[in-house]
Amino acid sequence: MKYVAPFATVLVLAGTAGAAGIAAAAPAAAGSEVLRPGDWGMEVKRLQRALDRLGFDPGPVNGRFGQETTTALWAFQKSRGLPTRGAADEYVWRAIDRRRAPHAMVPSGAADRVEINLGRQLLTVYRAHRPVLISHVSTGAEVHYCHNGRCGDAVTPVGDYRVTSKSPGWTTGPLGSMYNSLYFNGGIAMHGSTKVPPRPASHGCVRLPMHVADRLYRMVGVGEPVYVREGREVWNREYERYDRRGGHAGHGRHGRVRGR
Fold first, then answer.
1. Burial level of 221, CB count in 10 A (0-12/13-18/19+)?
2. DSSP string, 79-128
């Protein structure tokens, strides 16, 4: 855990060292300060404000890099073809500066809708055809499972659905507990969970971070369209070139694993 000083402060401290001192300080802080979970300070708050402005809910904008900010960063990284390593590096800051609008999977769909992209593991809420909330999710692990004597295939089916019912707070079923559930395909729901890894890992439901589940439950009503598509995982070519040069080992794409 570390305190990250704002860039302006770094420049003031470097001023006594002259131009060379400023040049040395700039690469570490000028819009490319690497921020990680546990960090705190004005630079973290700047990251939170940027994510919130782009529709990725980082939780309270309080300058503390906690789990809510981490899952929002995962969502942003996945939407821009970056690996979900949880650290805001120079490539994250560059992508933030570009402010690229997300690509709609169902542009001809309802003006108010929910889109679930299985390839990217992202959920997007649209209002008047504009994305207003983009969240990291964990969907079906695509494996056969047996849990408490119940067996099945962990799949989130592709298709066009509508929210059929809502269940507030915690409910417990044969496959585990769910929070603020929004059912859209039989027993399959969008719901909050304390375990939302950066990969498909559910029995078929769409797991959401807890703070996003609170917000989604307030936003989405019974009857709202829900479009589930395969989508596809994307990869940022600029980062890939850097990756091949040895800047980072591997790319951190999610894999299919068994689990709830």
1. exposed
2. HTT----S-B-HHHHHHHHHTPPPPPS-TTS-SSEEEEETTTTEEEEEET
Average pLDDT, the chain: 82
Residues 33 and 135: their CA atoms lie apart, in Å, by: 24
Interval 82-92: pLDDT, tens: 998 889 999 99
Other CB atoms within 10 A of residue 250 CB: 8
In this structure, are strands 188-192 and 206-208 parallel, antiparallel, or unpaired?
A: parallel
Compute, in degrees rounded to 10, the torsion defined by CA atoms 44, 45, 51, 54: -150
> How many other C-beta atoms are found inside a 10 Å radius of the C-beta of residue 107?
8
Listed residue (130, 119, 109) closest to 156, CA to CA: 119
For 193-229, write each residue's pLDDT tens digit: 999 998 999 999 999 999 999 999 999 999 999 999 9
Q: Strand 150-153 and strand 144-147: pairing?
A: antiparallel
